[in-house]
Design brief:
Blueprint: E1 8-14, H1 20-28, E2 33-38, H2 47-57, H3 66-80, E3 87-93, H4 112-120, E4 123-128, H5 132-145, E5 150-151, E6 161-165, H6 167-188, E7 192-197, H7 210-220, E8 232-233, H8 239-242, H9 246-256, H10 261-264, E9 287-291, H11 296-299, E10 312-318, H12 325-332, E11 338-342, H13 351-361, H14 370-387, E12 391-397, H15 416-424, E13 427-432, H16 437-449, H17 468-489, E14 493-498, E15 503-504, E16 507-508, H18 510-520, H19 545-555
């Protein structure tokens, strides 16, 4: 007796409104394919429902380490891939690609799910849409009408809906879609991936093109591919018919910014003639829906009035490997703030045990919606309010700022935690470095030596040779991260401090202390002694620093960051 068959997963990755329903459901109508739909969609009883039960049995897996995240997802797939069909289609939208991201994840890192796809080389189909304007209008139309797809044999919906688009928002949405497409092409370049353009899926008769069918056969190593009939079709209206201010506002702005090609290019076989729908004379009067920019911030619940208005959480946000202990010590030594350290660090027994306790009481909180994520975090803060009557200082490193992100989070957008800070106006201190070289070299050395650098008790470093290209990449990564966070933190109540100017002669500089008093509303901050930790001098223990690394750093304009040359 043979055991149950296991189906091969095929991951369909795309931006919303890029034809995933058309491709998936059309393939699933053939004997070889099964459609698992959007596994990370919060309204589908898929991964998040499975994860809730998994965590009930193994609550320790709640901490999102790399191993825990991968183990839960692989366990989910193991159950779902039991099928007689050869292939199971798994739809993952750009907005949910972060669903498996682990504890320590930089905004510049490739999502863990993509890393896993690279390691396993499962087939990936990347669906794109060349016309970002059509994509945005399709998204807006679906949102306003609550009608997302039309099956091939279904009557076309009411054509009276019209939209008034905000021109600046439309431009930003097109630019965001361009950035996302570049980002995902970069992410997917090492996966086992084939890319299809939505505009080229169907021929003028509405059938899948021979090129698409042949590419699918080659990609999935199929000897034959059963005849595929399109499952869905477009709703059959041109942009100018849907958007009432297209000619007067949208079109001129797009031409001005070099997007004239979007006005000419549209999907073949996608625009149906008016005769396919009800006659014009019988339609209802037009209903114009104004579509303006909405953000996650708009969906964040309004702040609850504080029982103690004096109490405040202060957030210290900075890059990993930056020494925040001295500043935290100076800010909390007089008792005006309690130091919570790095609340998202698993070793500090802070947020994660509390989160586990909350989900143990209410399993529904395990679904990472925006409201659930914020409910847990605000409960965590309220718990500390009882013990710290004046306020708390919370240290958050760049790679852990994503931990409150909700299930449907656009890649590259401001993290939910920072959106919450914008809305609540809690004080933020952004600690940056003028000299990125020590941190960059320290991280490269740490990777090679497996030692953490920057602690007073750090052991002596083994002698090593480093590649200068690796150091340059690290510097560029740090520069990009600081630039991203400056942009994200701009609308928050933020004070940026440069770490090199914090202390003079071992004490908190008065020129730093006064802005901190003003920013935090705390009059008791004094230029107290700042504890400082030692870091090995840049280049120490690196055999080729003087001969190879220093000359290249000078050539790239980093001479001011370099220590004096050591004698041979």
């Amino acid at each position: 007796m043979t055991g149950p068959k296991t189906s091969q997963p095929v991951f369909v990755i795309a931006q919303q409104r890029s034809g995933t329903n058309l491709l998936r459901k059309s393939l699933a109508a053939t004997p070889d394919f099964r459609d698992l739909d959007e596994v990370f969609h919060p309204e589908h009883k898929q991964y998040w429902h499975y994860r809730k039960g998994f965590l009930r049995q193994q609550p320790a897996r709640l901490i999102p380490t790399r191993n825990n995240q991968i183990s839960m997802f692989e366990s989910f797939l193991e159950k779902r891939l039991l099928s007689e069909q050869a292939f199971t289609l798994i739809d993952i939208k750009y907005n949910s690609i972060h669903a498996l991201d682990p504890l320590w994840h930089s905004p510049l890192d490739v999502p863990l799910l993509i890393q896993w796809l690279v390691e396993n080389q499962y087939p990936v189909i990347h669906l794109t849409r060349a016309n970002h304007l059509e994509n945005y209008v399709s998204m807006a139309t679906g949102t306003e009408s609550a009608k997302w797809i039309v099956t091939y044999n279904e009557k076309l919906p009411d054509r009276s809906l019209q939209l008034e688009l905000d021109p600046e928002t439309t431009l930003k949405q097109i630019q965001r879609r361009e950035r996302e497409l570049r980002r995902f092409r970069h992410y997917l370049k090492r996966t086992n991936c084939v890319e299809f353009e939505y505009e080229n899926l169907l021929d003028t008769q509405g059938h899948f093109t021979d090129e698409v069918l042949q590419s699918l056969k080659d990609h999935l190593d199929l000897a034959t591919l059963h005849a595929i009939q399109p499952f869905t079709r477009k709703m059959g209206r041109s942009i100018s018919e849907v958007v009432v201010n297209f000619d007067t506002a949208i079109k001129p702005l797009l031409i001005q910014h070099g997007y004239g090609q979007l006005l000419r290019r549209s999907s073949p076989a996608a625009n149906l003639t008016p005769s396919d729908a009800e006659p014009l004379a019988t339609r209802e009067p037009n209903r114009v829906h104004k579509v303006f920019q909405t953000t996650v911030r708009d969906r964040i619940p309004q702040p609850v009035p504080q029982v103690n208005p004096v109490w405040k959480p202060v957030f210290l946000i900075t890059m990993q490997q930056y020494d925040t202990d001295g500043l935290r010590d100076a800010l909390t030594r007089d008792g005006s703030l309690s130091d919570l350290n790095e609340v998202f660090h698993p070793a500090h027994k802070q947020f994660w045990p509390f989160r586990r306790q909350q989900i143990g009481r209410n399993a529904e909180l395990s679904l990472p919606t925006a409201s659930n994520q914020l409910e847990i975090f605000e409960s965590f803060l309220n718990d500390h309010r009882k013990r710290s009557p004046t306020g708390v200082l919370i240290d958050i490193k760049y790679p852990s700022v994503h931990h409150l992100n909700h299930v449907w989070h656009p890649p590259g957008s401001r993290p939910l935690l920072l959106e919450w800070l914008v809305k609540n106006r809690h004080p933020v201190i952004h600690l940056v470095h003028d000299n990125l070289l020590p941190t960059s070299v320290s991280e490269v050395v740490s990777r090679h030596s497996k030692l953490r650098i920057g602690r007073t008790e750090s052991p002596a470093l083994p002698s090593s040779r480093l590649r200068v290209a690796e150091i340059l990449r690290q510097i560029n990564m740090h520069k990009q991260q600081e630039s991203i966070f400056r942009s994200w933190l701009a609308p928050t109540h933020c004070l940026e401090l440069q770490s090199e100017t914090l202390a003079a002669a071992g004490a908190l500089d008065e020129e730093v202390a006064q802005p901190l008093r003003n920013h935090l509303g705390i009059t008791d901050i004094r230029p107290l002694l700042v504890s400082q930790k030692s870091r090995p001098p840049v280049g120490e223990g690196i055999e080729n620093f003087e001969s190879e690394i220093r000359p290249v750093l000078v050539a790239h304009g980093y001479e001011k960051w370099l220590p004096s040359a050591r004698a041979a």
